[in-house]
Amino acid sequence: MTSTAVSRRRASAPAGDARRRGVVLAIAIVAVLVSIVLSLSFGSRPVTWNEIVDGITSWFLGTTPTDIGALAVQSRIPRTALALLAGAALALSGALMQAITRNPLADPGILGVNTGAALAVVIGIAFLGTTGAFGYLGLALVGAFVTAFFVYFVGSVGPGGTTPIKLALAGAATTAALSSVVAAILLPRRDAMDEFRYWQVGNVGRAEWETMALVAPILVIGAAVAILCASSLNALALGDDVAVGLGVRVGRIRIVAAIAGVTLCAAVTAVAGPIGFVGLMVPHAVRLVSGSDQRWLLPLSALGGAVLLTLADTLGRVLGSPGEVEAGIITAFLGAPVLIAIARRTRMKAI
Predict the structure, then answer these.
(1) How far apart, in Å, are the Cα atoms of 126 and each of 193, 195, 209, 213?
(2) Is residue 10 very low, low, confident or very high in pLDDT (cuts 50, 70, 90)?
C-alpha cells in the first residue's frame, strides 16, 4: 500500500466515525421524541392523537381540559418530564463513574450511591421530620457522598489497590446492608408504607413541577461539568502516566468528575427515589455504537438514559394497569441480565 493510500485511509476513518456518530445522535433524538409520545399516550387509559394534542395545548395555555383523555395526557406531562431528566442524569452519572474508575461495573446503583441517598432521606423523614424537596435534596446529597467515599475506601483496601472487582463487591455489600436498614425503618410503619415505598424502589409517578424546578439547575450544572471533563476523561482512559504527560491533572479531574456524578445521582434520588441499572446499561449500549470517545459518549448516554427510563415508566403503567409497576422495578428487571453478561466475561478489563 502506497503512502498516499495510507494517508487517505487515515483521513477517511475520522470522517466515517463522525458520520456514524451523527447518525446515532439523530436516532437518539428521534427516540427521545418517540418515548415522549408513548409516555403521553399509554397508561391506565389509552388516549388518541387528538387528545394528546388537546392535552399538550391546554397545558401550554394553562387551562384545564374538559375531555377526560386530554386531562389524562396533561397529568402525564410532569412524570414524563421527570423521567427524561432522571434517566439522562442517571446515565450520565454512570458514564462518569465508569470513566473515572475505568470499571465496567461502575453504576450509581451497584456502587450503592443511590441507596445511600435514599437511606438518608428515609432517616430524615422517619426520625427528623424532614419534609419538602429542599430537605430531601440536602439529605440525599449527604447520603450519596458519604456512601461513595465509604465504598471507594473499602474497595481500595488491601493488595492491588482499587480494582473493578473490589469496587463492585464493596458496592454490592454496601447496597445490601443499606437496603436492609431502609427495610428495617419502613416495615414497622405500615400506616405510612405507601409514602415510604417511594424511597425503597424508585418511581417517577409523584412528579411535581416545584421539585423539578429545585433540582433542575443542579442537574444542568452537573451535566455541564461532565461535558467539560470529556476531553480530560479521554486522556485518563489512556492511563494515569499518559494523561499526566498530556497535561491532565489526574487527581483533580477525578475529583471533579466524581462530584458531578454523585451529585447527579443524589439529585435524582431526592425526587424519584433509588432507580438502579440505568447508569450501567446505557453507557455500555452507547459505547457499542459510538465508541469510547467521551465527547460523544456522555451526551449520547444522557439521551439514551432519558429514553430508557421514560419507556420503563410507560411499560410499568401498561403492565400494572389500572395501577402501575414502579420504574425502578422495570429497570432492575432489564438491567440484571446486562450485569450478568458483563460479570461473566473471562477477564474484567478496564475501559
Answers:
(1) 11, 11, 25, 25
(2) very low
At residue 129, the pLDDT reads 79
Q: Is 347 helix (H, G, I), strand (E, B) or coil?
A: coil
In contact, 325 and 266? CB cutoff 8 Å = no
Give the C-alpha separation, 95 to 284, whole Å.
Answer: 8
Q: Check: CB of residue 266 under 8 Å from CB of residue 144.
A: yes
pLDDT band of residue 163 (cuts 50, 70, 90) is low
Q: DSSP label at 350?
A: -
Distance CA 71, CA 74 (A): 5
Burial 39-50 (b: 16+ CB within 10 A, else e): bbbbbeeebeee
- Check: CB of residue 272 under 8 Å from CB of residue 202: yes
Per-residue model confidence as pLDDT tens digits over 56-101: 888 888 887 778 888 888 889 999 999 999 999 999 999 998 888 8
Query: What is the secondary structure of 256-270 as a DSSP string?
Result: HHHHHHHHHHHHHHH
- Minimal CA–CA distance to 101: which of 55, 167, 148, 42? 167
Distance CA 210, CA 34 (A): 26
* Domain segments of the chain as ranges: 79-343
Helix spans in 110-163 (H): 113-127, 133-156
**The domain at 79-343 falls in which architecture?**
Orthogonal Bundle (1.10)
Cα–Cα distance, 171 to 163 (Å, whole number): 12
Give the cell for residue 157.
Answer: 483496601
Average pLDDT over residues 210-214: 90
Give the count of beta carbons closer than 10 Å to the beta carbon of residue 279: 36
Give the DSSP per-residue string, 34-95: HHHHHHHH-SSS---HHHHHHHHHHHHHT---SSHHHHHHHHHHHHHHHHHHHHHHHHHHHH
Q: Cα separations (Å) of 185 from 15, 191, 266?
A: 56, 13, 20
For residue 326, pLDDT over 90 is answered with: no
